[in-house]
Amino acid sequence: MALMPVEEALSLLLSTAAPLGAETVPLDAAAGRVLTAPVIARRTTPGADVSAMDGYALRAQDATEPGATLTVIGESAAGRPYTGAVLPGTTVRIFTGAVLPEGADAIVIQEDTRRAGDVVTVTEAATPGRHIRRAGDDFAAGETLLPAGHRLRARDLALVAAGDVDMVSVARRPRVALLSTGDELVRPGTAAGAHQVIVSNIYSVAALARGAGAEVIDLGILPDRMDATETGVRAALDGGFDVLVTTGGASVGDHDLIAPALTAQGVDLAVHKIALRPGKPLMFGRSAATRTQVLGLPGNPVSAHVCALLFLVPLIKALQGLAVPAHPALEPARLAADVKANEQRMDFQRAEIVGHAEVVPLVRPLPVQDSSMLRNLARADVLLVRRPHAPAAMAGEPCEILRLED
């Protein structure tokens, strides 16, 4: 069977990823969620002309020269506006955020005044409109603050709240089930023997999925027995999940049981081998009965992480209605070391940023690229991408990189 190119595999995976629908949530539960309807401001901000500085509100024509004196007739503070009017020869002490009194058209900051009792002398001439934030300078009621399809960041929540919006319509979070396989696998902290392997990839894969907006349920570790594997797969497919992610058992060895177990449960595996390093034994498909998307990741932890970054993260985003390109989001960089020619698989090498050249990162591949070695994955800043059949390249030549998730 010919290996499928990475871009073709990703396009095929995303072709069946329809948005899951919407729900309304309070603003304090909306961080990281994707809007399914625009956010419309319910009020104008600022709601009135307000002072941008601490100082004195006055008529600019009364302080056209340094040395002008005015009588202080009141005070305007945030939340406690002065209710009278500024008349000729008078001024109102004003604080940042306070409403500009009627009749005033300028602010002289307190550093440019001298005060003796109720008399203020300005040491700098006033300028009409200076240090005043006009009503609606930020936004007006009825304006669109954020469009549908936008993923809410921390700073977006402040904007939505300022618009007097407390509930937002967002995409339902995809429910993702994780299922691991392997007689050798044990949980961290269980005093594993030398013949056992501590399961690690489920933690990185789960973190990537949650970071993309999913709810993640860990369904545990299955032994390498067909009956147990089929039972576990059947339960996962019947569990109401949008995505089932398996780790391990995705190759073609005697103990690689995931593919036959999925097929036995009616999952059409559209892809089983990808022209990718690390991660060739990757498969995905869909259950016709439950409409569950299935992604089978390799067992090696580096391969699982790279494949989850390339395929699972875009799938989760697409299920929330985000526009996702059907190709990895690569960036330009330059090599800090020579690299060898590549073979037929697209290679994602762990690499570190060692500087910058012509405003792009200068990257150097790490010395060990084994798909089971986690230290260099944790150390890496980016993945250095080598296209299929790319020729050898010298230090200083352009290259492409994929950013790791954080």
Automatic annotation (TrEMBL):
Residues 177-318 form the MoaB/Mog domain. Pathway: Cofactor biosynthesis; molybdopterin biosynthesis. Pfam families: MoCF_biosynth, MoeA_C, MoeA_N. Belongs to the MoeA family. Catalyzes the insertion of molybdate into adenylated molybdopterin with the concomitant release of AMP. Keywords: Magnesium, Metal-binding, Molybdenum, Molybdenum cofactor biosynthesis, Transferase. It catalyses: adenylyl-molybdopterin + molybdate = Mo-molybdopterin + AMP + H(+). This is Molybdopterin molybdenumtransferase. Its EC number is 2.10.1.1. It is an enzyme of class 2 (transferase). SUPFAM superfamilies: MoeA C-terminal domain-like, MoeA N-terminal region -like, Molybdenum cofactor biosynthesis proteins. Its cofactor is Mg(2+). It comes from Ancylobacter polymorphus. PANTHER family: GEPHYRIN, MOLYBDOPTERIN BIOSYNTHESIS PROTEIN. One of its GO terms (molecular function) is molybdopterin molybdotransferase activity.
